[in-house]
Every structure is written in structure tokens, then in C-alpha cells.
Amino acid sequence: MEIYSDSHTSQSQLTNTPVNHQVVSSTSRVSPWLTPLAYCLGRNVVLPLFFGQINITGQENIPKHGPIILAPTHRSRWDSLLLPYATGRCVTGRDMRFMTTSTECQGIQGWFVLRMGGFPVDIQRPAIATLRHAVELMTEGEMLVIFPEGGIYRDHNVQPLKSGTARLALSAESSHPGLGVKIIPVGINYSQPYPNWGTDVNLHIGEPIQVTDYMNGSLKKGAKRLTADLTNKLQQLSHPQSEISCSSFVEITNS
């Protein structure tokens, strides 16, 4: 999901405007009872029963402390359940925050999304308060999920990434020097374009990208380089051959 573009918000708008902490703190939440229950059911019942094999590589690449942005490819609505399964509290002890479209935060689905770390963004006209909240999550050392392709794509090809994820990460690091924001690329591949019962899924978690490595020069140039490198990482993690060549993985088999 693209969250940030030059036409809507500048770095000075995002970082130099005082943050209203009362507003920010109410923008997203993790329910202390619903989130553990939902993740437990998903991890032990729903996902193992629905999928054939769930293969995961690279879990050692996820920091257990500090601000990180998970930047996965987006292949199915199942992604939002598989990410906590592969990287959430049972693996790292950390809960996740999701930046999601406003339309997905409506009705019964929205009730769950808003209580499991999700917060809405209008991708056409993202509000300053929403973007400030994302930066605030980084300063609090949270794990934030952003789908940088902007939508669901049913093949192995990584779609062109816009600069929103990179600009947000750079803005957070620029406004809080030494914060240590990292971006973790995640390639998600299903054995079928539209997952159904018995579908196999592979999640390849890449090495962290250090945002401070892109702080030299202008924000625009740094975001361009960071976006290009993130694209290359996602392409490597999403290539079908990577599913065959990986010799070590966590495997959950339906028996």
C-alpha cells in the first residue's frame, strides 16, 4: 500500500509539525485479549488446517527490539494472517501495527482490524495525523507493516514500488537521529494464484536494510535509492527459484 507521495505531504510537514500525542495514541491499538486469542487460533487451527505446507526462511533476520518496517509483497488477504504467524509475538515477542486502507476498516472486518493493530489511511489523500502516527510508532520501537506494492498482485513479479515507505522511514530517522529504523523485505509466494485448501505458501524474510545508510544527500535522492534497493531485495525473495534453493526452513505440514 502506498502511503506517502510528494504531491500530498512534505518532510517538513511530517516532521516539523508538533505531534498531538493524545490524537496519535488513539489512532491504533492492540487489544490485550482479542489479539492473543486471534493469533493463537490462527497459528494453531486456521492456518495449519487451510494450508498444505507453510515454509518460512530468515526468521533470524527479524530484530526483537527497535523500530522496524516489514515490507512484504502482497499476494492475498491471507498475507495479513501469515505475517504474524511468521514474525509476530510467538516468534519475536512483538505485536504488529498495520497501515491499511480506509475501506478495510469498516464493518465487522474493520472492528477486528482496529483492535489488532491496524489503522486506516486514505491512500489518495493521506492525512498528516496518520503519517505522524506512523513516525510515532517508529519512535516507540514498534513493528509496522506496510505493503509497498500498493495492492494485491497474484503472480511472482514485484510491482513497481513508489517512494512512500522509504520516505516515511527516512523522515522518522531524520527527525529522531540515532533511532535506528530498519526495513525488512518479505517475499510471500503461494503455490496457486488464488489460495484454497491445501495450497502451499513460502515466506522468505530478507536481511534488514539500514535506513541510516541512505541519509546522505536529499530526502528525495535517499528515498529513490532506498526504494530501488528494496525492490531488488523483494525481487530476489520472490523469485520462484528461491523456493527450491533454500535448504533450511521452518515447515508446517498438514498430516
TrEMBL record:
Instruction: Kindly give the SMART domains that the UniProt entry links to this protein.
Output: PlsC
Q: What is this protein called?
A: 1-acyl-sn-glycerol-3-phosphate acyltransferase
**Sample GO molecular function, one term:** acyltransferase activity
Task: List the top taxonomic levels of the source.
Answer: Bacteria, Bacillati, Cyanobacteriota, Cyanophyceae, Nostocales
Keyword Acyltransferase in annotation: yes
A Pfam family recorded for this sequence = Acyltransferase
Which superkingdom does the taxonomy of this entry point to? Bacteria
Q: Which organism is it from?
A: Anabaena lutea FACHB-196
Entry keywords, A to Z: Acyltransferase, Transferase
Q: Where is the Phospholipid/glycerol acyltransferase domain?
A: 68-191
